[in-house]
Amino acid sequence: MADNKTLEFDTWLLQSVILANVDGPGTTERINNAADLLSKTPMAVSDLRAGLFRLAQKGFVQEANGNYSAAQTTAGIKWLERDKIRQLLSAEPAQGDVKSAGTGNLSKVAGDYVKKFQGFMSGLTNPRKE
């Protein structure tokens, strides 16, 4: 089970995903704008990507062509129903409900970030000699 800070963040993020899809596709820019609208606090892009990946793994968000939307598990829940979203996220998933990590492009994006980080770290530990 997630800690309270992660649960609050995921609730905010899932609300933002639902809101971002009201009048158009849920692009990361629209999701970030919806998050800003909901809490007047900007969301870091790295936190957004990690949160979307986490929610996709748990089966709450789905990705198609770079657009994110709420999955069937959130059917009937509106973006303004914060308590319902929080209850849904805090419930223990059934054994068969957890989705694989390789949904859509999320695993590729995560892999790209890992490669960039590894390249950054190798530059720190093995600086180029000019």
Give a brief rundown of this model.
The chain is mainly alpha-helical and 130 residues long.
Helix-strand blueprint:
Layout: H1 4-20, H2 28-39, H3 45-57, E1 61-64, E2 67-70, H4 82-90, H5 106-125
Antiparallel strand pairs: 1-2
Helix pairs in contact: 1-2, 1-3, 1-4, 3-5
Question: Overview of this structure, please?
Answer:
The chain has helices at 4-20, 28-39, 45-57, 82-90, 106-125, and strands spanning 61-64, 67-70. It has 130 residues and is mainly alpha-helical. The protein has a domain at 4-93: Orthogonal Bundle (Arc Repressor Mutant, subunit A), CATH 1.10.10.10. A two-stranded antiparallel sheet has the order 1-2. A hairpin with a 2-residue loop joins strand 1 and strand 2. Helix 1 (4-20) packs across helix 2 and helix 3 (45-57) crosses helix 5. Mean pLDDT is 77; it is low at 94-103.
For the largest beta-sheet, the strand count, sense and barrel status come to: 2 strands, antiparallel
How does the helix and strand content classify structurally? mainly alpha
> Which class of the domain at 4-93 in CATH terms?
Mainly Alpha
- Helical residue percent? 40-55%
Number of strands: 2
Judging by the overall fold, what is the CATH architecture of the domain at 4-93? Answer: Orthogonal Bundle
- The DSSP helix count reads 5
Gap between N and C termini: 50 Å
CATH H-level homologous superfamily name of the domain at 4-93: Winged helix-like DNA-binding domain superfamily/Winged helix DNA-binding domain
Order of helices and strands: HHHEEHH
Q: Tell me what portion of residues adopts beta-strand conformation.
A: 5-15%
- Radius of gyration from the CA trace? 16 Å
- Estimate the global geometry from the Cα principal axes: elongated
Task: Strand order, main sheet: write it out.
Answer: 1-2
Q: How much is the average pLDDT?
A: 77
What is CATH's topology name of the domain at 4-93?
A: Arc Repressor Mutant, subunit A
Residue stretches low in confidence (pLDDT < 50, at least 5 long) are: 94-103
